[in-house]
Amino acid sequence: MTLFIYTTAQIGWLLTTQWLGGDFLCRLIKFFYTFVFYLTSFVIVCIAVDRVFGAYKLSSFKASKKAFLRCKKMLYIAWGTACLLSLPQLYIFGVVSPPDMPGFRQCAPIWMSMKSQLEHQASLPEATEDERIFLWHEYLEIGFWERSYNITHLLFVFWFPAFAIVISYISVLCILKSFSRPSKAAFKDFKFKNTIISMIYKNRSRRNDENNKYVASVTSVNAMKDDVTAAADVVSTTQCLRAVSEDHKDEDARSLILMEGNQTGKVLRRSFSAETKPTSSLPVIPEQNRESLKLTLKPAEKSKVGSMAMQTIAAARLKTKKQAAFILIAYLTLWTPYNLFAIINIFIPTDSRGYFLNRIMHFTPFLNSLIVVNSLINPLIYGVFDRVSKQ
């Protein structure tokens, strides 16, 4: 729409230097001018908000089913809001012919025509002082409504969308960071991944009364290089401590660590020195209950997501940072000249406005045309990052 409506009409208007399309086409074209500007900003906001919902419901299986419906609703709202905010253009704009140039017609806002008529009436020789004062108050009132409309237009077409885009992408990064933050247990497991760490566990209730309690124990083995290299690099460890009975408390306490490898199935044993303090009496775990024990063991602390998911989230967070940076830079760079010119046009004093407009009149079409470039760049940004993520 930006290319076929705004660009085509703007090129024809620049070639003819005046409006030749009539009053109805003037109002319709100005309506679509503002409509495509609003729609460009609102669609970018919809994409940013959709990224927030997608990051927030990252682990939900039903998120993909609701995403399509949510996008449709947001696009309907964007189109409806853009159309509603553009309706005043049908009343504001029209074909205007200056009093001193009867044959020249231009598509201009209605307050420009009203101001021109008031200035012409105030410049007449037969106008009294009271009439000039009355005309001046009307002139100021028209300027107030013009300024209010332009400020509202700038807020909805640039500043509110820019604020929503920034907040949305910051929220996405914060959500991804919270998902990828590991817990203390995951950090310790990563730090000591080459060391055999005993599990802390507690047995749940069992049908067999003789094995109704399993006491948590912690055992660290620091020097087992020769034995560990003989086994597989990655082993699934099931540790069982056998304590001496009450009749053998005076004897040397020995604890055995049984390790079952995934591949070789070897059992590695290491006995502690005689100086090791005797441990408390622990029940011996029968062979038939070891498999059920594996299912009941849980880490004391868990990370929010697994290691593979953490890597995926880290890559998504890096991609989101780059994409957000490119989108914000493109949006601010290409929209700032248009909004800067509009702000200066609103707040510049009336006596110096004509001089300022004459100085930058040659650059105005170029500054306004940068918004069209934004509509071309945004699909390229999203397309490039989506292609990189698929590869």
Give the gist of this structure.
With 391 residues, the chain is mostly helical.
Task: Provide the CATH top-level class of the largest domain.
Answer: Mainly Alpha
CATH fold descriptor of the largest domain: Rhopdopsin 7-helix transmembrane proteins
The major pleated sheet works out as: 2 strands, antiparallel
CATH superfamily of the largest domain: Rhodopsin 7-helix transmembrane proteins
In quaternary terms, these chains amount to single chain
Overall morphology = elongated
Total beta-strand segments: 2
Strand residues, percent: under 5%
Instruction: Report the radius of gyration as a whole number of Å.
Output: 37 Å
End-to-end CA span: 31 Å
Number of helices: 12
Trace the largest sheet across and list its strands: 1-2
Uncertain stretches: 183-208, 211-285, 289-304
Helix content: 55-70%
Subcellular location: Cell membrane
GO molecular function, one term: G protein-coupled receptor activity
Pfam families: 7tm_1 (PF00001)
Protein name: G-protein coupled receptors family 1 profile domain-containing protein
